[in-house]
Design a protein that fits this description.
The protein has one domain. With 50 residues, it is an all-alpha fold. It contains 2 helices and no strands.
């Protein structure tokens, strides 16, 4: 779950280093991974016993 956030952090570091294109690509990949993980988490069924 923390992998997309590390990717965003590295993308920020790449911006500061002057690597704009690599930063945009890594940010987009991290955002896509975050959205996939959210979709998997949000659609999980809960095992509730009432």
């Amino acid at each position: 779950m923390s992998l997309p956030f590390f990717g965003i952090f590295i993308a920020l570091a790449l911006v500061l280093a002057g690597q704009r294109v690599a930063s945009i690509v890594l940010f987009a990949a991290s955002l896509a991974a975050l959205l996939v993980l959210f979709k998997l988490h949000a659609t999980d069924s809960l095992n509730l016993v009432l």
